């Protein structure tokens, strides 16, 4: 490839559940990274309801309620939209949902889902899939495709990129960050995250969260 040719962008696979505020923060960071690095995000659904379905009794009541029908509704609608209208609508619908759920603090209501569908020009009839298990098998397959890359002891988001040697992928949970890094700060975090995640035998860096998500 010559210098005058357009470089092929590196695919970055990103698994999200619209419910998670931390995944939302990370997803907005990835949109910043797209502006400053030769990467292209491919959006996929995972589900906190699926992830926690065998341990609901261990969770506080507030989380059990959130991971019930209320938690299934957004991911079911997103996966139905993806199946019926193509992969390209996934990220757009996620943005429309996440802006309302998190930035506007409206929560994952049916009204919010309806508004998000309308914003991105998708049929209102897709709202019916909030209560349908028609695409649950596809949803679980998408979820497992992401979580199997990093293991069961994490949540959302999961990110996967091709390995530097062209063989296998580098996958990781997170990063968990607030507020969303912009510009060169986003680029530095991306470069550093790839550096540690691609180090053989590296597993974890962590510290106590002292701030909640800041939707700036």
TL;DR of this structure?
44% of the residues lie in helices and 11% in strands. The chain has helices at residues 21-36, 48-51, 61-66, 69-85, 88-103, 110-119, 136-147, 183-197, and strands at 10-16, 39-45, 158-162, 169-173.
Account of the protein in words:
It comes from Streptomyces yangpuensis. This is DsbA family protein. Pfam families: Rv2466c-like (PF22234). By secondary structure, the protein is an alpha+beta fold. The chain is built from eight helices and four strands, in the order E-H-E-H-H-H-H-H-H-E-E-H. It has helices spanning 21-36, 48-51, 61-66, 69-85, 88-103, 110-119, 136-147, 183-197; strands at 10-16, 39-45, 158-162, 169-173. Strands 2-1-3-4 form a four-stranded mixed beta sheet. A hairpin with a 6-residue loop joins strand 3 and strand 4. Helix 1 crosses helix 8 (183-197) and helix 4 packs antiparallel against helix 5. The N and C termini lie far apart (39 Å). Residues 1-5 have low confidence and may be disordered.
Largest sheet geometry:
4 strands, mixed
Q: What is the spatial order of strands in the main beta sheet?
A: 2-1-3-4
Regarding quaternary structure, what we see is single chain
Mean pLDDT comes to 92
Query: How many helix segments?
Result: 8
**What fraction of the residues are assigned to beta strands by DSSP?**
5-15%
Uncertain parts: 1-5
Rg result: 17 Å
Organism: Streptomyces yangpuensis
Protein name: DsbA family protein
Pfam families: Rv2466c-like (PF22234)
């Amino acid at each position: 490839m010559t210098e005058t040719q357009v470089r092929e962008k590196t695919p970055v696979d990103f698994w999200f559940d619209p419910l998670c505020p931390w995944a939302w923060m990370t997803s907005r960071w990835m949109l910043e990274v797209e502006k400053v690095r030769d990467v292209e995000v491919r959006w996929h659904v995972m589900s906190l309801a699926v992830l926690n379905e065998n341990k609901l009794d261990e969770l506080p009541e507030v989380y059990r309620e959130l991971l019930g029908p209320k938690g299934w509704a957004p991911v079911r609608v997103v996966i139905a939209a993806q199946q019926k209208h193509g992969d390209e609508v996934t990220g757009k619908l996620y943005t429309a949902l996440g802006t309302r759920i998190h930035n506007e603090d409206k929560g994952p209501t049916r009204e919010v889902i309806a508004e998000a569908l309308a914003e991105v020009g998708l049929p209102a009839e897709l709202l019916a899939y909030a209560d349908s298990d028609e695409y649950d098998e596809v949803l679980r397959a998408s979820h497992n495709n992401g979580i199997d890359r990093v293991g069961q002891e994490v949540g959302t988001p999961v990110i996967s990129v091709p390995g530097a040697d062209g063989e296998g992928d580098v996958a990781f949970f997170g990063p968990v960050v607030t507020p969303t890094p912009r510009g060169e700060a986003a680029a530095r975090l991306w470069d550093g995250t790839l550096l540690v995640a691609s180090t053989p035998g590296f597993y974890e860096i962590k510290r106590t969260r002292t701030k909640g998500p800041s939707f700036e």
